[in-house]
Amino acid sequence: MLADIYARSAVTAGHDVKVIDVARLEFPWLRxxxxxxxxxxxxxxxxxxxxxxxxxxxxxxxPLWLGTMPAxxxxxxxxxxxxxxxxxxxxGGKTWKKLLSGKSARIVVTxxxxxxxxxxxxxxxxxxxLERNILGFCGIGPIRETLIGLIEAKDxxxxxxxxxxxxxFGREGR
Length: 174
Known about the structure:
Layout: H1 2-12, H2 33-38, H3 43-54, E1 57-63, H4 71-80, E2 87-91, E3 94-98, E4 104-110, H5 115-121, H6 125-138, E5 143-148, H7 156-172
Parallel strand pairs: 1-4, 4-5
Antiparallel strand pairs: 2-3
Helix pairs in contact: 1-7
């Protein structure tokens, strides 16, 4: 619902939007370093890479599961952000060249606990891993984040506030 609200608001404001619904994609999970480095991406993964290449701004929505993103989303990132698409050997003493530089991102995470507890007590480790070790590793930045806590316990006015925030972000393209 949040993703739909964001996308509709972005389109209404004149932004071009393409959606990748990871839960509906069929792709194998990587099981070795060799598969990650030289395995051939499936058609679904190649299409996702084309969409990400096209985008100037990437928005990622997911529920917090066991302190981080769902395993399917992590498997998707491992498939999509492969050498040759997201990173390349840089040479000259550098390990990797970031191939997705110039793109920005927003991460929206919903959770059952208060967002403040996740951020301050748990250190938002799953979110930080996505920002630093996946998106930042590929050159995506700046990365903005929106944490929506107590998602299932929100009353109508608090729910509307979250929806209004997504509408505003969509309109502004951020």
